[in-house]
Amino acid sequence: AYLALHRERPVERRVLSNLLWSERSEVSARRNLRQALHNLRGVFAREIDLPPLFVGSRTTVQLNPELDCWLDVDSFRESADEGLADEDGGDETALSVAARLYVGDLLAGFGVEGAPAFDDWLREAQDELRRQVTAVYRKLVAAALEGNNHRLGIDYAHRLLTFDPASEEAHRQ
Predict the structure, then answer these.
(1) Are 120 and 64 within 8 A, CB to CB?
(2) 54 — phi, psi (to 5°)?
(3) N or C: which end of the chain has fewer CB within 10 A?
(4) One-letter-per-residue 3-state SS of the chain
(5) How many CB atoms within 10 Å of residue 149?
(6) CA–CA separation, 45 vs 145, rounded Å?
(7) Are 18 and 30 contacting, i.e. CB atoms less than 8 angstroms apart?
(8) pTM greater than the 0.85 cutoff
(9) CA end-to-end span of the chain, whole Å?
(10) For 3-56, how does the pLDDT look when each residue is reduced to its tens digit (9 = 90+)?
(11) Cα separation, 32 vs 152, whole angstroms
(12) What are 132-167's pLDDT values in tens digits?
């Protein structure tokens, strides 16, 4: 998951092993990382006829950029950024796409035992995405109410409250 979300550039193996096995020695963490990557390569090589899953060097690893893969998180971010970029209300179509793509917290319920660094990274990533979806819904509520589509505005405000229950503005709307 970490490599998929950072696939635009190589990640230092040291960083990845510390993220996943922060409570182990560096030697043990690096060995675990090598074994995990080997296992993943094996699973994907058997199941799917794809180019190599990972590329890199002795010090870096990266999800192969030649792999044709779609991530909902990337599509959400792209649509949200597009929709939020316009100060005059935003691109409602892009905002609607972003709202449909966000179905809950990133990797909800997932954790790595004994990896507090991973848990911290995941919490930060979830918070960032939650802030972004909150901004998306705020713009959608405003656009719906401005267009006198009160039913849709109320629906968006209810969804906004699931991400930001303390929002006085959403309660008023």
Answers:
(1) no
(2) -125, 150
(3) N
(4) CHHHHCCCCCEEHHHHHHHHCCCCCHHHHHHHHHHHHHHHHHHHHHHCCCCCCEEECCCEEEECCCCCCCCHHHHHHHHHHHHHHCCCCCCHHHHHHHHHHCCCCCCCCCCCCCCHHHHHHHHHHHHHHHHHHHHHHHHHHHHHHHCCCHHHHHHHHHHHHHHCCCCHHHHHC
(5) 13
(6) 52
(7) no
(8) yes
(9) 37
(10) 999 999 999 999 999 999 999 999 999 999 999 999 998 887 776 667 888 999
(11) 50
(12) 999 999 999 999 999 999 999 999 999 999 988 998
Residue type, 29: A
Lookup: tokens for 92: 């409602």
At 28, list the tokens. 């043990």
- CA dist 159 and 139 (Å) reads 12
Q: What confidence tens digit (pLDDT) does each residue in 86-127 have?
A: 776 668 999 999 999 999 999 999 988 889 999 999 999 999
Angle subtended at Cα 31 by Cα 30 and Cα 36, rounded to the nearest 5 degrees = 95
Separation between Cα atoms, residue 133 and residue 148, nearest integer Å: 22
For tokens 């656009």, name the residue: 143
CA distance 146 to 170: 15
